[in-house]
Amino acid sequence: MAFDMHEEPLELTTPAGKLSGTLALPGTRGPWPVVLLIAGAGPADRDGNSALLPGAPGHMRRLAQALVAKGIASLRYDKRGVGASVHPGLQEEDLRFRHLVDDAVALAGRLRADPRLGTLLLLGHSEGALVAKLAARDAPAQAVVSVAGAGMRACDLMREQLQGRLPELLEEAVQAALATLADEQTMDDPPDALCLLFRPTVQPYLISWFRYDPAEVLADLPLPALLVHGSADAQVPVRNAELLHAARRDARLLLVQEMDHLLAVEGNADAGPPQIAGAVAELVQQLERSTAA
């Protein structure tokens, strides 16, 4: 992929701490449209890498590169408490889903204040897709892009992901735990086999996440939306994209054939991001035409 790209650090101090990211700018003359890239679940850094994932997929960095090749700037960032996004005293039991939304809103405001940047889109991957939808309620964004986003509550998605993959007794315990958390109740002593997934310190975050129905949030969002999903996504199956599209029939649905959850197409990590960037570029053109009209 041949293109000219300039990257510069961006830091934003918030009441909770510091957010640190990388602003990728095209080599062409600005101002440029810009996309805030919001990573998925877990302790993800600005490139999409996480200690919980084997290897280093770097799918968010690849997506930033693909956007620059289309003349679109982007900001990708370390999540709160990860990498250089230092939040002194942050404890797992204090983290809530809304905190991630607040961070996205703050960073969107920073991008809007940069005179080099124009049309602003929020793009979230996986769990980040819900963050983007919620942040768009308060951020100065013109559109939202959901990539591999869930179309049902996270507790229901987790229930489907685990169904039939565990011993019967353990599966019953998982289903009971999910039901308890969905009812906004904590468990004092989860079974040892479930301690990693449902440890007491992460339960408040899960409860705060399980409250949101992504399809309902999208249906209530008065902004243009682009829905992107891979046909080979085993973690968030294609039915989730269909649920989102049913909630917003005016949204464009792009199904990328053979793309998995981390944006690789048949094992090629570089193949998915350009297809996503192409669809984002088309959306940007539509937005800019409507603004000029």
TrEMBL record:
Residue intervals of the Serine aminopeptidase S33 domain: 59-266
Q: Which UniProt keywords apply?
A: Hydrolase
* Single annotated GO MF: carboxylic ester hydrolase activity
What protein does this entry describe? Alpha/beta hydrolase
Annotated organism of origin: Ramlibacter monticola
